[in-house]
Write a structure and sequence with these properties.
CATH class of the largest domain: Mainly Alpha
Number of strands: 12
Shape: globular
Oligomer: single chain
Number of domains: 2
Distance between the termini: 23 Å
Low-confidence stretches: none
CATH topology of the largest domain: Formate dehydrogenase/DMSO reductase fold
Helix content: 40-55%
Largest sheet: 5 strands, antiparallel
CATH superfamily of the largest domain: Formate dehydrogenase/DMSO reductase domain
Strand content: 5-15%
């Protein structure tokens, strides 16, 4: 609990004014009913009971920030006060000041925007977090996060439109603004507000306009669409700005005044158009390659399993012949191994891989938890199905089919939420039906290739089987192509960050994107050729087998490039950065040239996702059995 001084200045004190009943979004300002027994309970912060007789009369009302952009001078005192109060490392800050500008000399305008967590009425971070590390408290309506529960997946940083949750690449967990609830309880405003030199920041019960303010707007130039989360922040900005305002960071985004919506909407800033390059090495070494490996491998296994199981159940020739051959059980174990590889890569991507089990905690709300649950059921049932397939008796066959059915159920559930978790309004490039087309197309094409290559190796391939699998791959590649082309046409000129994603696709990764399109086109055409010609040729297997292997290589290559681009080019609805702080271009430059070794620059290397086997073995060798047991208990109990 915060210890209040006797001589706190007046500007740091919370006012007791509260007159309105509902927010501009229609939600009640009272977080609990007037007659709730909760109102009589003490507010305990970090196990520390209040050591004073003060009681905030507005404890159970929704609070929020007020920001007067006309007053902000960009001194960063709010950032400094926040960092000092919370003890954050140099590369993290819960509050940051970004910049947008417009006009030219002498009619130049600059707008500084100080932003932290907005403690939203509809907190998508809370709904998305698989570990239930987030809670929206009745006290002050604060959305709080517990870093000790977090296992570092970073999904909350994907879904939040305002950069509020901060994923620490060194510690491997997320933390964020806590509204300084310990200060609120003793009648003080948050540290950032108390430190503001220009009286740009204020704080109080939401919708109660502070003194010397005349506006309480829901948006400001550079602020993402507030309808996504209903944030509890209000703005005043009476400076006259141009119809277009630009960011000063490296992101090629500018904001254009949309008269119909009555707010500034994002669009491409052509003055920052990057050159057309390959950047293949950068693409394949990106932080998200674990997601690429997971989605491709698991979707390939899912596609192959669906084709294999349904053809066996319904007697669909010639795919049913694969199940009747001696390669059936080994093929299932190959699928188990491939899925295990994907799951391992995904788990080791976490900031705290040893706490993977916490991913099941939020099945009620989180699509990530539901994906993890569904894929886990699929994987476990597939392994059990493969185990019982090794035995030839009635009991084993019955158990094998039972687990096959369970695997299909897990596949349907996990596969659906594998798609749903990417339909994020804060990432407009992903929030399109192309994502479903891509995932379904990948499962169909790579699943067919997996069955075909296994049949060729196991000696079970026939011209009819290769032609059937090639036709299925053709459908999958065609679906993926159609979704990609429609998305390109719809999003390239969209009034959202999706247009910037397509700018990166065709410039920063332009040559790689064209290579991917070429591979996709050739693979689709080759799949059609194999489908038509292989059954008609004398010695069709000798003719079709080399073509099928070539098709498999093309399909894997285009899928790898396509999925890597899917993660690399997405542009979130971020708040504007400054010239160095929160500037993605500077962060990338600092890591490349070694400036990130200087902690005062606020840039850190991404370290938490790397798994050092040698360091692990060294630790095992140099500790006693009692120390090993103590470490094990500490890791898994937190």
């Amino acid at each position: 609990m915060f210890n209040r001084r006797d001589n706190e200045p007046e500007y740091a004190l919370l006012t007791g004014k509260a007159t309105k009943e509902r927010t501009q979004w229609g939600a009640p300002i009272d977080t609990v009913p007037e007659d709730s027994p909760l109102r009589e309970e003490p507010f305990i912060v970090n196990g520390d009971e209040p050591g004073h007789n003060l009681r905030n009369p507005n404890r159970y009302k929704q609070h929020g920030f007020y920001f007067n952009a006309d007053n902000c001078i960009g001194c960063h005192a709010c950032e400094t006060a926040c960092a000092e109060k919370n003890g954050t490392p140099a590369h993290l800050n819960f509050r940051s000041v970004g910049i947008v500008e417009c006009g030219t000399y002498p009619a130049y305008r600059r707008l500084n925007i100080s932003m932290a967590c907005n403690h939203c009425e509809d907190p998508v971070c809370l709904k998305g977090c698989p570990t239930r590390a987030y809670t929206k408290y009745a006290e002050y309506g604060a959305v709080l996060q517990d870093p000790d529960i977090c296992f570092g997946c970073g999904y909350c940083t994907w879904v939040c439109p305002y950069n509020a949750p901060q994923l620490d690449p060194v510690a491997g967990h997320v933390s964020k603004c806590n509204m300084c609830v310990d200060r609120l309880e003793v009648g003080l405003k948050p540290a950032c507000v108390a430190a503001c030199l220009g009286n740009a920041l204020d704080f109080g019960v939401i919708e109660e306009i502070p003194d010397n303010r005349v506006q309480a707007e829901l948006s400001i130039p550079g602020f993402p669409d507030p309808s996504i989360t209903h944030p509890n922040i209000r703005f005043q900005q009476m400076k006259t700005l141009e119809r277009e305002v630009k960011r000063v960071d490296s992101l090629p985004v500018q904001y254009h005044l949309d008269e119909q919506q009555g707010r500034y909407v994002p669009e491409v800033d052509e003055s920052k158009r990057p050159p057309v390059e390959w950047n293949l090495k950068k693409l394949l070494k990106s932080h998200e390659m674990a997601h690429v490996a997971f989605t491709l491998s698991v979707q390939a296994v899912m596609g192959a399993f669906v084709l294999l199981t349904l053809s066996r159940w319904f007697g669909i020739a010639p795919l049913a012949d694969v199940s009747a051959s001696g390669m059936f059980a080994p093929l299932l174990w190959v699928m188990v191994a491939l899925a295990a590889f994907g799951l391992f890569k995904l788990n080791m991507h976490l900031g705290r891989p040893h706490r993977f089990y916490r991913g099941f905690y939020n099945l009620r709300l989180s699509p990530v938890s539901r994906e993890i649950a569904g894929v886990s059921v699929f994987f476990g049932s597939l392994a059990a199905h493969a185990f019982f397939a090794l035995f030839d008796n009635a009991f084993a066959r019955g158990m094998s089919e039972l687990f096959a059915a369970t695997a299909l159920a897990g596949l349907a559930y996990g596969g659906y939420y594998m798609y749903r978790l990417y339909r994020i309004p804060a990432r407009p490039y992903w929030d399109h039906w192309h994502t479903a087309a891509s995932f379904l197309g990948t499962g169909l094409s790579l699943g067919s290739m997996l069955l075909g290559i296994a049949s060729l190796i196991g000696g079970a391939a026939t011209p009819g089987l290769l032609a059937s699998l090639a036709s299925l791959a053709f459908l999958g590649l065609l679906l993926e192509s159609a979704g990609l082309l429609v998305q390109w046409r719809e999003q390239e000129k969209a009034s959202s960050e999706a247009a910037v994603s397509w700018l990166f696709m065709t410039t920063t990764y332009g040559h790689t994107f064209r290579l991917r399109l070429g591979l996709l086109g050739v693979a689709t055409a080759l799949a059609g050729i194999i489908t038509i010609t292989t059954p008609l040729m004398n010695g069709g297997l000798s003719f079709g087998a080399p073509l099928f292997v070539l098709l498999a290589l093309l399909a894997v290559a285009q899928s790898l490039l396509g999925r890597a681009l899917f993660f690399a080019v997405v542009v979130p609805t971020t708040m504007p950065g400054a010239y160095f702080w929160k500037n993605p271009g500077f962060v990338e430059h600092a890591r490349e040239v070694g400036l990130a070794d200087m902690p005062q620059l606020g840039v850190a290397y991404e370290k938490h996702h790397k798994f050092d086997v040698q360091e692990l073995l060294k630790t095992i060798r140099e500790t006693t059995w009692q120390e090993k047991w103590d470490q094990f208990k500490r890791i898994f109990t937190g």
